[in-house]
Amino acid sequence: MRHRLIGLAAGLVLLAGPAAAQVRLLEAGIICPRISTGELVEAPGTEAGHIRRIEEGLGFDLAARTVPTMDNLSFGFRTALKDGAPATDVTIVVTHPPMGPRGVTREEWPDTLFPGQTNLNLFTFELDYEKVPGPWTFAVEVAGRPVVSVPFEVTREGARGPVEAACFQFMS
């Protein structure tokens, strides 16, 4: 289930152009398993048809890009506008190997970035069909052009050493 919250690591791609000058990557990584709560918001461009607005204040527990398919594990990125940039309409895009009954490979939802605020976008493994190993990418698009892109590699749950070490207190 996709998550969005209003509110640098190796492997990121920042793309050039006027729109790219407005958006910056603040951080990316993994958030230890937690049960997600928050309002469901319609997002027809996603496999589930909605995203969840989650509470403010979540931080990344691990700045890693290798993500095991653990229940309730979240991963994604935090972005913001560069100083002086006006509010900007964007599309958040997550691409991944085929998922769900329709074999969806691209999920997207509209968003607006506001000056002085950060924007956290996550994917949380809540359902078994979402646990698709392979390359995943989180991106911000402006007017259909990617301006920030962050790759992740999702692995089977067995490859969870660094995540387990970082998240030990949250593991059951």
TrEMBL record:
Pfam families reported in the protein's UniProt record: DUF3859 (PF12975)
Record-annotated membrane-spanning stretches: none
Gene3D superfamilies: 2.60.40.2390
Protein origin, superkingdom: Bacteria
Keyword Signal: yes
Keywords for the protein's UniProt record, in alphabetical order: Signal
Segment forming the signal sequence: 1-21
Keyword flag Magnesium: no
Limits of the DUF3859 domain: 25-154
Protein name from the UniProt record: DUF3859 domain-containing protein
Species annotation: Jannaschia ovalis
